[in-house]
Structures are given as structure tokens and as C-alpha cells.
Amino acid sequence: AATSQGASSASVLRRIAAMLGAENPFATVLAEIEKMLSLLASEGKQDAEHKAWCDEERKVTTAGIEKKTELINTLNKEIQALETAIEDPETGLKAMIKADEDALAENSQSQVTETEERKEENAEYQKGISNLSEAATILKRAISVLRKYYSKISAEIKAEAEGASFLQRDDPAPPSTWDDKYTGQSAAGGTDAVSMLEFILTNTQAEEKAAHDDELADQHSYEDSMQSLKDEEAKLQDQLASNRKLLAEKEEELLQKRKDLKETEADKKALEDYLVEIKPGCDFISENLALRDTNRANEKLALENAVGLIKGTPAYTNAMAEAHEESLGDCKDICAANEAHAECKACLAKVSVPGYCAGHAGTPGC
Q: How big is the chain by its Cα radius of gyration, in Å?
């Protein structure tokens, strides 16, 4: 770059020398030098602006990349948390929903099973009660019949006993094999039979009452169990509906987070690609700006020195004098004595002296 700048300066000087050697008008040469100086200033400004632009673009883009990187990290954490909330085999929403569904199915089956068992138990109860009731009816009837029967026998025995008191006689001795313990259809024997039946009836009635009590207790237990199952079922249904709604919300949020992550990663990639794109030009200006400024300063100094040298030559002085005289045209002779005089000014303005002085009263000669 330094060699290029030096060659450029030498080229400029050679060009100026060529113009002078070709007797090019000095005004044209100096105008060309002025253009070169203006170009150098413009290039310096452009380089400075380019350097400032590169610095700002790199600063803003790097900050953007850092922000995108931070956002990507945040999104990844949020996505991981959502995936855990949804998919965790123990605490995830899907596992909780599955557990609720299984619990509801088990609850429903328990209701069906307990209801069927209650029906079977009640059927057995109805059958048992029917049998006990029938047995009690039969026993009551039997007791009633026996009481009437033994009451009749008792009356007959009493009558016979009263009749025998009038006919006292000695009975022959019974044989040795005669068992005088037999009482036959005695009142006492009948009473024992009735008592036995009454005892059985009491037990039967007690058994019937116990069956009623057990059935009532079983029915209450069934109803309590069913109410508990119903309460649990309602709670599970509410919990299941809530978890399903929450799952839908979490899945929607997860989709959005994944979309945001994809877009943010694309934005970060675009910023990184942009830095790569501007790197060659920005690296060049950053590495060479000082050298380019130095070379331009040297070239400017050379051009300014050339202007000084040109203006210091007799040829330039004569050329400028001749050019000035030519610019006076027909007024050359009038202006030869004093170009500041009103007559010269009026001649150059192509007006009369009084006319010129009318607008320029302070001019010498007015």
C-alpha cells in the first residue's frame, strides 16, 4: 500500500511536469492539482467514515449475536422445562393424565363390581329371609296346633283322674319287664315339645333379625363406599380435565418456543454471516487506515510544494501577467496606470465613468 501511494505521488508529479513541458496553461495545471487535493481529502473522509462504519457495524452486530445467544440459551432452558413438564415419566402431565385415566377406569370397575356383589348379597338375603320367614310361620302354626292338641289331652287326663277316684281298686302287679317310666302323651311331654318349638322359633326370629341387621349394615356400607367412589370419580374427572387443558397449553407453548428458537438461531446465523461478509473490507481499513492517512498526507504535502514551486517560477509570473492583460481586453491601456481607478472599472464594466461612480462612489477617480 505504501509503494502504491508513493507511486501515485510520483505519477502526479510526472503528470504536472508533462503539462508544464507541453506549455499547458498554469491555471489548468493548478486546477488539476486542486482536484487531486480535493480527491485526497475525499478519500480520507471516506476511509474514516468506512472505518467508523465498520467499527459501529461490528459493535452492533456482535452485541446482536450476544443477545441472540443469550435468548437461545433461555429458550433451550424453557424448552427443556416444558418437555420435562410434559414427558417426565413420573411427574409429567402425560404420566399424570395416564394415572388419572387408569384410576378412573379402576374406580368405574369398582362401582360395577361392588354393585354386582351388593345385588348378589341382597338376593341371598332375600332368599334367606324368605326361608326364615316361612320357617317362622310354620313353627308358629305347629306351636299353635300342638298347644291346642296338648290342651285337649290335658283336659282328658284330668277328667279320667277325677273319674278314677270313685273306683278305687287294686291293680295286679305288673310283670318284671314293665317300664313304668313311660309317660306317653302326657301334659309334661307335650309342654316340652312346644317349648322346643318355641325355642327354635325364637332362634329363627333372632336369626331373621340378625339377617335384617346385617343387610342394613351391608347396604349402608355399600352406599358409603359408592358415595366415596363417586366423590373420587368427580375429583378425578376434574383433575383429568384440568391436566388435559394444561397439557394442551404446554404443548402449544412448546411449539411456539421451538419456533422462536429456530427463528432466533437463523437470526444469529445471519448476523454471523454478515460479520464474515464485511470482514475483508473492514479488516483492510482497520489495518491500513493509518498508513493510508500517512501516504495521503505525504502526497498532499508534495502537491502543495509543487503549487509553491510552480507559483515561484518566472514563467508562472509572466504567464499570469499575460493572462491578466488579456483579461483586460480593450481596457488594457486605460487600466495600465491604475486598475483600481474609476476609468478602468467603468471600462471593464462597459459603462460610463459617471454611471459606474453612481453605484460605486468610494472608487478612486469618482
A: 68
Find, among 313, 226, 340, 242, the residue nearest to 20 by Cα: 313
Q: Specify whether the CB–CB gap between 246 and 91 falls below 8 A.
A: no
Residue 170 gets which letter from DSSP?
Answer: P
Q: Per-residue pLDDT for 159 more than 80? A: no
Contacts for 108-114: CB closer than 8 Å, 24+ residues apart: 108/233, 110/229, 111/226, 111/229, 111/230, 111/233, 114/222, 114/225, 114/226, 114/229
At 155 the pLDDT is 81
Q: How far is residue 106's CA from residue 125's CA, in Å, rounded to a whole number?
A: 28
Instruction: Report residue 197 as a C-alpha cell.
Output: 318349638
For residues 142 and 61, give the distance between their C-alpha atoms in angstroms, rounded to a whole number.
112
**What phi and psi, each to the nearest 5 degrees, are found at residue 131?**
-65, -45
Task: Taking residues 300-320, report their average pLDDT.
Answer: 89
What is the Cα–Cα distance from 51 to 285, expressed in whole angstroms? 6
Q: What percent of the chain is predicted at pLDDT more than 90?
A: 70
Q: What's the CA dihedral at 52, 56, 59, 64 to 10 degrees?
A: -160
pTM for the structure as a whole? 0.58
| Residue bearing cell 492517512 | 293
pLDDT at 17 exceeding the cut of 60: no
Average pLDDT value for the chain: 87
